[in-house]
Amino acid sequence: MNAQDMSITHLILNASWVVQAVMVILVVGSIASWATIFKKSMLLKDARKLNGEFEEDFWSGASLNDLYTAAVQNARTSGPLERMFANGMREFHKLRERQIHNANTLLDGSRRAMMASFNREMDALENGLSFLGTVGSIAPYVGLFGTVWGIMHAFTGFAGMEQISLATVAPGIAEALVATAMGLFTAIPAVVAYNRFSRDVDRTAIRMETFGDEFTNILQRNLGATQSPSGH
User: Fold this and answer.
1) What is the pLDDT of residues 87-116, one digit of tens each?
2) What is the DSSP string of 9-56?
């Protein structure tokens, strides 16, 4: 036995087909997991940035109508918070155009529109998290299955040998343990990313729910004072 015989490449190429199949599954899972991680990271980063920019504009003193006009014009590049605001204002204006002046009806309509938008935004932000959670949960067990199968295959090959030494046992055990290592390599980044992204999504949800309540309060005050959402 030489060093080349114990290299990772040699162990993978000489593993049984079942262990190799397990390794392929883990490699594909790892690639898909990392692709999801990068995509989700960019999505949440953009959402935080755009939400922050819109909140600054919202609390700068600009009128609700001006903010709504800007939100409609920037519909393709706006963030989750701005889209939720735009949906709320759109429903508010539609009800006013139908000559509905009851404050409770106007507020309920706006609130429902924002809630529907909030649910859509949360669904988009949470998309992919279940995949990361699944990879993080099952990848170690997939790797363990490959290890158990590899060890069984290795010991089956020793059945006809009269003398067994470490030199004959080591390659079979080593190639089996590679599957466990690959399972952990696939699972650990997925679990870390899942926990981090779940925390970020929860924070975004709280931020949007808080904004929705504040915006509803502003509409209520404006309705009570002037019956017009012209400013806040």
Assistant:
1) 999 999 999 888 888 888 999 999 999 999
2) HHHHHTS-HHHHHHHHHHHHHHHHHHHHHHHHHHHHHHHHHHHHHHHH
